[in-house]
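Q: Can someone sanity-check these two? First one:
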Amino acid sequence: MRRGREEPGWLRGAPPPRWARLAPVAALVVLVLAQAVTPGDVELGYFLAALPPVAAFAYGAVGTAVFAALVLVLLGVPAIGVAHARGSDLATVAAVGLLSVVIALVRRRRDAQLVSVRTVAEAAQLAVLPPVPPRVGPVHCSGLYRAAQRGTLVGGDLYDVRAGPFGVRALVADVQGHGLAAVATVAALLGAFREAVLDDTELVAVAARLDRRLRVEGTRPDGAEGHPELFVTAVLVEFPPGQDLVRLVSCGHPPPLLLSGTSVEEVAVEPGPPLGLGLGGAESSKVAEVRPAPGDRLLLYTDGVTEARDRAGHFYPLAARVPVLSRDPGGLVRAIWDDLLEFSGGPRDDVALLLLSLDGTAAPPGRARGLREAAARLGERGGRSGLPKAGC
């Protein structure tokens, strides 16, 4: 799944579209026919001299040469009646045609280089931040990533979902800054997270490992501080094996949204300090626990979503829009992105969305509603109608 905003294929080194190849031919036919119905004292044929350079952007060297030769014939053969070019005029047209062939040759070589470079770059970026799979263990996943810097697949946001001996763990984070300048930090954090999924028994230990990794990233090889203001906001999620339970740790990140039917509310997780600031808060971060009902989903996001503004300066109302967009047949994550584009005309920051749910998402609506109503009747102390919520 491509996460960067798409550019037209022919601007990325792909073969030009059909209309670009047909345009010079159509212009040639129109000019010849127009000359045929134009009085003899008006010559339109000399406009044909401009067509070989146009053809150079749609055809290769051979095709451009054929096009230039055809123009020379039309201009140099009086019997055809298109024009009556002679001497220096024909020499000028021939020089333009030759130059067009050179342009076409150089363009083709540059296109091949561009395709090769983009292929390697995209493969490298996707190796750093691959698309989230639709399922990781018992957890269903749906993700979307859009980088703010045009033409890139990775920016300053990141997400990942991994299964390990301590359950399925997910990470959504936002690195200070965006674009290619933040990719090295993104790669380092993802590597640390993937190791922590296998090694660390507690979710707070995962946060502490990420914090240490980030502080190392902010230190120069000589031991001095290289980027003392480098920090990351993050939220970590854990689905322990064999339990209908979700644990969360927030490090200065926007709170996840819990989607229960048509209701949406923020998960009550006490945020600790962002990672990398050296405040020592990662080890003491508060763990929130939520017991989701069948059909509940957890939406994690970065501030590129909620801080997107419309022309009037209003922020995007994610929580208010989710109940409406959840009915979109194309899926909630894609619907949010389309709605965000329409709202803001294109976010100015990286955007990451991650939707997670346990296998219970397939429960019939009636059964899920009944379970929530039963929990509401029994849960005077549960804190939330239909979905008991544990404290941080």
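And here is the second, same format, sequence then tokens:
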Amino acid sequence: MARAEKARKRAEAVRWAAGERARHSGRPQLGVETEPGTKWFHHRPWKFASQLGFYDPAAPGILTSTRQMEFSDMAVAAPPTSHKGLIFGIDADSGWFLIHDVFEGYGETLESPNVVYIGDLGQGKSSAMKTWGVLRQLILGRRIVVIDKKYQIDRRGGEYTPLAQALDVAPIRFRIGGGGARINLLDPRIATRLDEDLDGPPGEGDGAGFETPAGQSMLLRAVTEEALGRKLTPREGKALRMAHRQALETGRHEGRVADIRDVLAALYRPDVGTAGAAGLTREELKEWGRDPAFELERMIEDDLAGLIDGPTSDEIQLNAGLTVFDVSLLPEEGPALPIVMTIVSTWLANTLYRQADPVPTTLLIEEAWHTVQGSVATVTRRNTKLSRALSLSCQFAFHHISDIPADSPAIAMIKECGTALVYKQSKSDDAKACERLFSLPLGSAAEITALPKAHCLFKIGSADPVVAIHLRSRLEAELTNTDRAMKSRATTHLTEGPA
């Protein structure tokens, strides 16, 4: 009898627990009796029900408000950047403003002020450069130098034309054959020293590494090697250096600034004193410099006609807040683009090297792959190594890592950039190359291939990247719009009208 009573009580307990589970889940089960008003929770753990495999239902929730529940969002991370700097946009994950400035962040969040933008065409690189890299920098009174490569047919010039005109700045335009600006690469304003000289303080010069910007000799050598399409031989290099010295002496004797035509004349007709100083005869020196002379002559009369073959144009100055070098009319192929870009960057580096009070300066180069190939890549590398000492931020834009030769000094230059903005790369190989080059977290390549327009992986120093959304004001959007031609609503008649 006692055993039967015990079994009955156990069965009742099982039915009761099952009913409580059903009421708690809101799904009554068949065969389980439920009564209104039955208490469905228990204040203390019920050991017997737990032994049967049932768990005590939780206590009922309470009504609350959105204000009281704000604490539930405490897991959202802090802002991705500090408050010091210039607004770029917002963090796509948290909605916080993304604020960054290479000059403010130097020494704290990054060690290099240089910036690289990489991404497919039309993903927002240029808009970011024009706003975050130009307009917002100008507000702080900084110096901005732009090398504008992209031609806009509706503007009859580079894409920075409307921005420059809105700020009452006339772009400096280059064109082959004359009618544009000219830069003399032997102009002392561009490079005051010879690479072989030790003009600076003790410890400076070629033997001490990259303590000074590229000098005239290095620039002249790079231009000549571009003309030849190969490296100079030791004898050719010696002939070029002696011709350079003879040209400078000719200019001093005639009371003017020497130019590349004086170098060409010295290669064809070395004087006795120049040859004797090198322990050579005139004929030996002339023979060594014959091939460089032929190619230099062809270059300044063909590929670079009107660009570097005379005095520097008066309108070229680097002291203004904004200077725009419009190189959009120069041909994509040939040496003109990389040579003009390299001369401009060398001029800027030497200008900053001589300034008494450093003014934070930004150099922006669109389609920078022109400056990282061939002989000019070494000059570009040398100038960018000096960025920190010159208070200079070099900002480069590339479409793909594959644009850059694997053995180019540019690979090391890009790796050293303290800030990287990686936009969409449609090809997975390009995305994986970015992941490796910038040491991004594993799996970032898949995210890069799926980035929407105006979104980028924003990496500062060694910190993990964040997905940033670039924001523009209405005025900035108007000044940076490059889609006017494609979105034109102009129409034409169905048939040709009367003459």
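A (reply): Looked at the second one. The CA atoms of residues 262 and 383 lie 26 Å apart. The radius of gyration is 34 Å.
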